[in-house]
Amino acid sequence: MAAPQEGEELIFVPLGGAGEIGMNLNLYGYGTEARRQFIMVDLGVMFGDDETPGIEVIMPDPSFIEERRHQLLAIVLTHAHEDHIGAVAHLWPRLRVPVYATPFTAALVRGKLAEQGLLDEVPLKIVPLGGELQLGPFSLEFIDITHSIPEPNCIAIRTPLGTVLHTGDWKIDPQPMIGRRTDVDALRRLGEEGVLAAICDSTNVFVPGRSGSEAEVASRLEAVIAMCKGRVAVTAFASNVARLQSIVRAGAKLGRHVALVGRSMHKITSAAIETGYLKDLPAFIDEVSAANLPPARVLYVCTGSQGEPRAALARIAAGEHSNVTLGPGDAVIFSSRVIPGNEKAIHTLQNDLSERGVEVISAEDHDVHVSGHPARDELADMYSWLRPRVAVPVHGERRHLAEHVRLAKSLQIPEALLAPNGSIVRLAPGAATIIDEAPHGRLMLDGTIVTERNDITLKQRRALSFAGHIAVTVVLDERGRVLLDPVVIAAGVPEDAVESAQDAAADAVDRLSGRRMEDDRLVIEEVRRAVRRAVQDTWGKRSVVQVEVARAG
Amino acid sequence: MAAPQEGEELIFVPLGGAGEIGMNLNLYGYGTEARRQFIMVDLGVMFGDDETPGIEVIMPDPSFIEERRHQLLAIVLTHAHEDHIGAVAHLWPRLRVPVYATPFTAALVRGKLAEQGLLDEVPLKIVPLGGELQLGPFSLEFIDITHSIPEPNCIAIRTPLGTVLHTGDWKIDPQPMIGRRTDVDALRRLGEEGVLAAICDSTNVFVPGRSGSEAEVASRLEAVIAMCKGRVAVTAFASNVARLQSIVRAGAKLGRHVALVGRSMHKITSAAIETGYLKDLPAFIDEVSAANLPPARVLYVCTGSQGEPRAALARIAAGEHSNVTLGPGDAVIFSSRVIPGNEKAIHTLQNDLSERGVEVISAEDHDVHVSGHPARDELADMYSWLRPRVAVPVHGERRHLAEHVRLAKSLQIPEALLAPNGSIVRLAPGAATIIDEAPHGRLMLDGTIVTERNDITLKQRRALSFAGHIAVTVVLDERGRVLLDPVVIAAGVPEDAVESAQDAAADAVDRLSGRRMEDDRLVIEEVRRAVRRAVQDTWGKRSVVQVEVARAG
Predict the structure, then answer these.
(1) Is residue B346 very low, low, confident or very high in pLDDT (cuts 50, 70, 90)?
(2) Is residue A515 scored above 70 in pLDDT?
(3) Chain A residue whose CA is closest to B350
(4) Which residues in chain B have their CB less than 8 angstroms from residue A496's CB?
């Protein structure tokens, strides 16, 4: 490793994931301010919710690095979860640099690039497990760790000013069931070598103890399935290939054939098989064959554990799935956590299943799930191995980062820094400090259009959902006289309120028509005000009211 | 008690609360089918969510009993929570019968009736604690129990065909801190007398053990507040008067003056003081005085524990509260549970507080809350005292009712019946059976208008929130010729899509204008289709498109 030069700095800039859960985007920069080079670690999405109606996917705003695109060397991906890779296919055209990932992650990214027609454009480079990579001043080493998906990696980033360990998402699973175990030796060795900074997962910083192992889940799932007499459907995150393998093995042991149900289940399984996982398992059967087997011989693995309305399980619960029917005597096992915000959707789904007579078994009453993120004792282990000078928590909401800073301090880490999205953190030389703020924010994928977070159309849609829309067209002739009654088109507004809007618009135009209506703005303002007031009086709400004046001739 | 006559039946009809959490409405009927008399127990609301944009309050549809209004004797209220009393002021005009409640509940109902201008119309009658009441064939006895609000009551309903115990919402709190303890003797005595049916709270049927006591919370809260050095704000449900009292006492002990912050905090406190609670407490101070005290002398009690955006705590977190400011060194204690569906709002609030440097302390990491509903051991106690012939679970989602039925069976209750909303259950004579279905559903308070659940305007608003609205007006002259370009007014639609809608509408009208446009429907359909297709092509989404044809002259 070369010695650092005068004026060189190592900086860290989170643009997503630090202060919110989801859509991770981390930048590391090295060099003098004038000649700085960057690598990006992860480029994920989060999903829209009721605050963002009609928005499927939310991405970090990459404009800070987009403006410095010629300084960006590569995008490096830690693992294949959506919140780490989901924005690659959408934002790569703005960045146009090579993308590095281990084989399983690369297989899933490849699928996404193909969907966007980018497969031939993006240089997608495969890094072997435990591999190394030189990118400008950054020497990268991929270190095996465990999580809830195959091939999670910590990335050690060595620079002339010191080594950073970017943990990615992780846990310490002593028996991950698939893939390699955590390379504790490598982490210890790194600690002995000296770690400048640990940039670490905060998701479960409020959870005491340890996250537990996939091996425990495997045996509990087998025990629970063994007690079921009818059809069994297990719903789990499709990306948890170890869990899928455990379910298939339990099925084999209990004489049940396994059918995968749901698109992403097939997609992930293909990627897993393609990259050498899920070997030595009995073959899956298809949904149609499964339907013809005796109930006690069937085991479905379904998407839809979060209550997603279009996923397999929701369609099964609604009795609308073409090939899968569940009823009295059958059971659904939720081998998954409840992602905050999805509680109602999941409970609705469970109620629907219950209404069909299906028994619902969940992590609420049976231990059929473990988290993929480190609880406090695991965080303590990691810090004891690395002994970094600085802890910079990422991958958490504000309250998680704050708690993680407290935890790191209690573990005697000399510096612990709360650096939310947009912080430009100088990690070295000197004490870690936030030296500036980078533009940051959210981009929304609205249909096929990428928009800003505060896009006016999204705000309008929220207002529409509350009180509807009233569009009024006033038609005048060439001399500014009223040609016909104002045309009122309303949506989401009760009939009574629409009628009073019509009356109010007509009255307002009548009042105005004494004068020659030369100024459109005057007409618009007058009609708008009258309609809003009438709707408010009738309905007690303020609709979005828009008025246009059209002139004939 | 008179002996039952030939053909008389005792029926139970839940119209709300059985199969969902919230908006409870229970009917008990007695008599022959031709001459049946009813009482209603509770008449509550639930609150709208992202599935019901713009809807503040959702109520059970009372049409089944509205049609039999002359057979309804009274509305009897168990306690003052919104999900038990919130619909009285909205639906009473459809029912027009006396309303019975204990003093504290009556005080809160009175406030609601006053807001609706119904105070002089509604016969609101006060039942003393432990009081009795004869309503036609029903002999009612109010039995003290504990919950998370003053004056919760079980209601024993004696009829010639047997006694029903309607539990209302309850727990067994050995030290409720306010009001009376559970009258276990009365419940045991009832069991000895013989209970036909227990109609029982299912909220926490998945929770093992016991709910715990307000007394434990009081001492834990005091310990947590004692550790705080700056200003402390505790947020709790305003209706939990015992909790409020514990907070005030802790403040007094620790030298802190208490200010109430938030409208419902004042409302409930007034009702409590008016009905004899909260005596022997130091006086509250107002927000302005509190702001002038040293931080270590201040204790706020705030509304807003659920992240409600307009409540006191959200305004404090946003730095927008006129009198209350919190910052570094201060702490907010969430002495409340997370109501499912509010997770994201609460976490956002906690993140905002954390961002101001305020320490957030919650039931997640400190035991500063207990539930007001019975966990499994308490349910077992209740069944052991009552030993009813039949268990009919209410106050729960479908999955709760199903689990409660399983629990009751495991406790050797001879009959346990899952009777969702709308079930007409014959409790006696004979085995409890669902004999018919009553119309049931939800009414929505949309602004000031009460609408049906499947109201079209609400559906439209959901569609608008997803993909916006495009209103197109086509103006023709008296001969059916185009008078001007179609006027397009759009809301919630990106500019590009609006432009393509305009072009598509103009093109469609051009194509049509060769023919004489005599049929409005043809024009509407043609323009609508063209606009929808254009928007879909540009934006990938299907807006709500409405077209009107107006004819001049």
Answers:
(1) very high
(2) no
(3) A399
(4) 449
Whether B411 and B383 have beta carbons less than 8 Å apart is answered as: yes
CB–CB contact B492 A355 (8 Å): no
Contact B344 A347 (CB under 8 A): no
Q: What is the pLDDT of residue A454?
A: 66
pLDDT more than 90, % of chain A: 87
Confidence at residue B477, expressed as pLDDT on a 0 to 100 scale: 84
Q: Which of B49, B206, B551 sits opposite A344 (nearest CB)?
A: B49
Residue B16's pLDDT is 97
Rounded mean pLDDT, B333-362: 92
User: Which residues from chain B sit within 8 angstroms of residue A347, using beta carbons?
Assistant: 340, 397, 399
Euclidean distance between CA atoms A54 and A49, whole angstroms: 8
Give the residue on A whose Cα is nearest the Cα of B468.
A461
Tell me what the mean pLDDT of segment A348-361 comes to: 94
SS3 state at B451: strand
Q: Does the pLDDT of residue A514 top 70, yes or no?
A: no
Taking CA atoms, what residue in B is nearest to A460? B492
Mean predicted lDDT score pLDDT of chain B? 94
pTM for this model (two decimals): 0.88
Q: Which of B347, B460, B475 sits opposite A475 (nearest CB)?
A: B475
A206, A465, A539 member nearest B465 (Cβ): A465
Q: Which residue among A464, A487, A551 places its CB closest to the CB of B464?
A: A464
- Is residue B539 scored above 70 in pLDDT? yes
Pick the CATH number of A10-209+371-452 from 3.10.450.710, 3.40.50.1820, 3.10.450.50, 3.60.15.10: 3.60.15.10
CATH superfamily of B214-362: Metallo-hydrolase/oxidoreductase (3.40.50.10710)
Q: How far is CA A184 from the centre of its chain?
A: 28
Task: Select the residue of B54, B497, B550 nearest A466 (Cβ to Cβ).
Answer: B54
Contact A449, A468 (CB under 8 A): no
Cβ contacts of B520 within 8 Å, gap of 6 or more: B549
CATH class of A468-551: alpha beta
| Chain B contact set for A343 (CB, 8 A) | 340-341, 343
DSSP secondary structure string, A113-166?
A: HHHTT-TTTS-EEE--TT-EEEETTEEEEEEE-B-SSS--EEEEEEETTEEEEE
Q: What are the tens digits of pLDDT across the range A16-28? A: 999 988 899 999 9
Per-residue model confidence as pLDDT tens digits over A403-455: 999 999 999 999 999 999 999 999 999 999 999 999 999 999 999 888 876 67
User: Which residues does chain A have within 8 Å of residue B397's beta carbon, measured at their own beta carbons?
Assistant: 347, 350-351
| Inter-chain residue contact B343 with A344, CB threshold 8 Å | no
Question: Residue B517: its pLDDT value, please?
Answer: 67
d(CA A90, CA A96): 11
Q: In chain B, what residues touch A49 (CB-CB under 8 Å)?
A: 50, 344
Mutate to test the interface with A, among B446, B452, B493, B546 (most CBs of A within 10 A): B446
Contact B125, B99 (CB under 8 A): yes
C-beta atoms of A447 and B539 within 8 A: yes
- ipTM of this complex: 0.87
Cβ contact (<8 Å) for B54 and A541? yes
User: CB burial class (10 A; 0-12, 13-18, 19+) of residue A514?
Assistant: exposed
DSSP for A476-497 reads E-TTS-B-SPPEEEEESS-HHH
Question: Which of A449, A469, A551 to substitute to test the interface with B, most B CBs within 10 Å?
Answer: A469
pLDDT at A21: 87
pLDDT at A3 over 70: yes
> What pLDDT, in 10s, does the model give residues B497-516?
999 999 999 999 988 876 66
Q: What CATH code is assigned to B9-209+371-452?
A: 3.60.15.10
Q: Where do the domains of chain A lie?
A: 10-209+371-452, 214-362, 468-551
Is the peptide bond between A429 and the residue preceding it cis, with omega within 30 degrees of 0?
yes
